[in-house]
Amino acid sequence: MGRAPVRGAVDTYRVLVAVVMLGVLVATMSWLQSRFDSSDHDKAIELVKDYKPHDGGQRTLVEALLLRHPGRKRHEISWRSQIMSSCLGHVRVTARFPKHGDEAEVTYAFDVDLTGPSIHPTDETTIEVLKSLTTATSTAS
Q1: Helix (H) or strand (E) segment spanning residue 105
Q2: Radius of gyration over every alpha carbon of the chain, rounded to an integer in angstroms
Q3: Distance between CA 103 and CA 105 in Å, rounded?
Q4: For the whole model, what pTM was predicted?
Q5: 76 neighbors 98 (Cβ within 8 angstroms)
Q6: In the predicted model, is pLDDT for residue 140 greater than 50?
Q7: Which candidate among 41, 59, 101, 140 keeps its CA 20 to 30 Å from the CA of 88?
Q8: What confidence tens digit (pLDDT) does each residue in 30-56 have?
Q9: DSSP labels for 81-124?
Q10: Nearest-angstrom CA–CA distance, 32 and 34
């Protein structure tokens, strides 16, 4: 004869199933968030690389950077990104030129709003690069 279940007793099998389901849920959500983050990194870097001024400029941001560093090649630029706010779609993208000969290491940083989309410089050097795009465009016209 079996024992009658005690009221308020915990069924071990149900607890085990609940814990396993919770673990699967956490793993799935973590994987999904990493996919969104990876996509945000890729989009932000490409947005900065392909940026052109709205007034019809022909030169991209990468071309402007290379003009500031004669003799350097595209593959020498090290691109990195850091998510500042995943909910708002804000990513900081940095372009780094490593030390080369007498030239010191130089880093340019851009705050990217993926929902806009828009690019914002973070320091004076980066502002100069963006200004060079519009200056070159207005003097060429």
Answers
A1: none
A2: 25
A3: 7
A4: 0.75
A5: yes
A6: no
A7: 59
A8: 999 999 999 999 999 999 998 888 776
A9: EEEEETTTTEEEEEEEEPPBTTBPPEEEEEEEETTTTEEEE-SH
A10: 5
